[in-house]
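hiii so um. not sure if this is the right channel but i have a protein structure encoded as tokens and i wanna go backwards to a sequence. like what aa goes where. can anyone help
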């Protein structure tokens, strides 16, 4: 089975339609599937729900899809760096399901493991708990959170072999692994595709069994969310 596709558009061919729930990896601008998100935007599909830690920044990552009004709902833990996200939420244009960061990661991981729900202490006594089942364990309250079962997973990685075994680099690993496992179909864009057998089996972060399609996304421009500078000290 050939998992390598010639472009992001080709890798998403036949997978996109209106109303999808998409799990996307990344944190801010780190480890986001840039090429795949651009292809989703260019396809014109709409009414999408994204499960992602955040929406990148204005005009980057999922932020591009917010600009084109293709996203109707976000399941996220952090929205503070995207002004368009903030504007659409406050104006009622965008539905937002806030989810604590660790809980969001665990909801994705649970979906990938086939677990429909789990109890957590996080959020007890806050707005996060409203409308959710509460159960007492060892004399303490826990709330029920549902696993995320996405229609499609979009992931960015460092290296992959031709069978889809994937390696992430440093903090780009963040949400990409749980996001990858919780989708019915997982598409990964990578900086480098290497021959099968050339990766150390002990260094694989995401086994190829979870990956259906691969695309080479390089070269990438390194984007920086904030540039902080100071005057050079005089000798």
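sure thing!! here u go:
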């Amino acid at each position: 089975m050939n998992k390598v596709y010639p472009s992001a558009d080709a890798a998403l061919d036949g997978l996109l339609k209106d109303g999808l729930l998409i799990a996307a990896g990344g944190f801010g601008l780190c480890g986001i599937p840039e090429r795949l998100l651009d292809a989703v935007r260019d396809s014109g599909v709409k009414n999408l729900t994204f499960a992602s830690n955040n929406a990148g920044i204005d005009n980057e990552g999922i932020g591009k899809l917010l600009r084109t009004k293709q996203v109707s709902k976000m399941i996220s833990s952090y929205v503070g760096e995207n002004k368009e996200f903030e504007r659409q939420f406050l104006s009622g244009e965008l539905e937002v399901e806030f989810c604590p960061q660790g809980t969001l990661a665990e909801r994705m991981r649970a979906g990938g493991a086939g677990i429909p729900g789990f109890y957590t202490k996080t959020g007890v006594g806050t707005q996060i708990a409203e409308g959710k089942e509460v159960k007492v364990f060892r004399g303490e309250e826990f709330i029920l959170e549902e696993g995320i079962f996405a229609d499609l997973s979009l992931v960015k990685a460092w290296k992959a072999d031709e069978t889809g075994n994937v390696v992430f680099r440093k903090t780009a690993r963040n949400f990409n692994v749980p996001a990858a496992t919780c989708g019915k179909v997982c598409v990964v864009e990578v900086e480098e595709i290497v021959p099968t057998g050339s990766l150390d089996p002990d260094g694989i972060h995401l086994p190829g069994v979870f990956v259906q399609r691969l695309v080479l996304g390089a070269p990438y421009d390194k984007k920086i969310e904030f540039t902080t500078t100071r005057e050079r000290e005089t000798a």
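oh and The first strand starts at residue 4 and ends at 5.
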